[in-house]
Amino acid sequence: MEYANQYDNSINNPSRYWLERSQAINWYVPPSTGLTNTSDTQYNWFEDGLLNTCYLALDYHVEQGRGDTVAFYYDSPVTGVKQQLSYAQLLAQVSVFAGAMKRAGICKGDTVIIYMPMILQAPIAMLACARIGAIHSVVFGGFAASELAVRIDDIQAKMVITASCGIEVDKIIAYKPLVDEAIKQATHKPATTVVYQRETLTAQCSRASDIDWMDFIIGAEAAPCEILKSNDPLYILYTSGTTGKPKGVVRDNGGHAVALKLAFNDIYGLSAKDVWWAASDIGWVVGHSFIVYGPLICGASSVLYEGKPIKTPNAGAFWRVISDYKVSSMLCAPTAFRAIRGDDPQGACASHYDTSSLRWVFVAGERLDSSTYHWIADLLKVPVLDHWWQTETGWPITAPMMGLNNPRPTRVGSTNNCTPGYDLRILDEDGQEVSTGGVGNICLKLPLPPGVSTGIWNQPNRYHNAYLSTYAGFYKTGDGGYKDEQGYVYITGRTDDVINVAGHRLSTAEMEEIVSSHEAIAECAVVGATDALKGQVPIGLVVLKAGSKISNADLQTALIARVRQKIGAVACFKEVFVVNRLPKTRSGKILRAVLRKIAAAETFQIPATIDNPEILGEIKEYLKAR
To answer: CB neighbours of 25 closer than 8 A, spacing ≥ 6?
Structure first.
């Protein structure tokens, strides 16, 4: 009953519930109130509380005598470097860098862009900003200069912190020329650019505003923590695939810390003695919440990995990391496991490593198909736990709560039940709740729990227009799905993943589930193409597993038969194209929105988050030939 009691209390009396949960972190001045409503859609959490997120992540643990505990294990197969930093060592470096920032004129409320690869200096910069109350915005290192320029202008960045380069499997990306071009294009000019020089490539600090990282910190005094209000902004994070004016999601300090403390302990079931690995990038919300802030606030050891699931050097990379650092639990996108499975279908590489420290694997970011689920579970012999959340929420909406004494069991295909504070409803197009088992729009009843963004930077009306205007009193997630009688939530995909085939509304996610179950398929995407007769017809794009011998004709026949058997002839699934790769973001999400536009012969803009832009031309030719 522990879950049921917690959840009911969070919905029936959210202010009291979250005020009690706020006691789990160390405030300078604890809040006296939980929820403060200023209107039906405007509200604050812990309004009179004072704290500092960097203090919670570092100073507190050192004061508790845990300074020697490893904060970060840094593992970089692309450079061969392995390092570890204790909490005391990390605190020292963060404090000095924060002091250097203050000496350079960065004050509370100033905005800073961090444009870095997955190296230790990235979280050091993030935490230094948090320490002095500067608002950071992490932008993927290697983003196009034009995209970076837009973000510099949007937040009026006073400083840019970057590195000389990023290192990929097969190339080196010089960052400084991209930063220089972005600043040239931007209307607003940052006062300072700090450059961390990597051994692989040295950048030229030729502008008057440029300064080498080591020169920047020389002689700097360690900065103390700034006392901040709960609702003071911690960071701005731009959502992926943004076109036009970017959408910067704003996260506060107090609600964020309280939510992550609950999530790390109650959802992920981890404590200060554990080693945690979120196999993501700091450019994504996963990196913010569960590489940097979440694990450190809870005093655990976090793995910072600069590599890929495959080709660094092989499909055993993930198993090696688990073995080397005795990882207790990890979080990863399903796509990463599909890539590993594609290169090593039998999972033979796992046999070379000891993964017995692993208790379970959490997956998120994309829909987890049953084929991938069973492959991971059978290979690692641990629970595979699907859960669901968004950049805007910052922590899980639905998830199994593994830290409770009696976590609810998992169900294949479901992301489990709602976590505390999320009142999830399934609404039809008119805003009415659908019956149990009925598919509709997944919405969250207001108010949303702590940690969830309630604003878009520099655009006060955009949050309301994007999320709150469709259904009065509800936040529209943009995802479709349904709930069963026990409250388990099933995500069927983005609401725009439904196609209309001769008047029949069909889910491409359901078709992907069927296609991916074929033994020769490593990963796939199903999109709707424009059809003169039927309006839309589904097209399958598939990547084969390494060593697969099936012919394209036989594969197409088999997949058509499977879809027909499971869904029926109404699906009109008759076209399958075998491709070498699918276009993905750097977090591993397949760019289905772009694929839909290509299939419909519509114009599209290449997203700044794409990891392999060259594949779009190849797929465009595939689909053009039909």
So the answer is: 51, 56, 257, 258, 261, 297
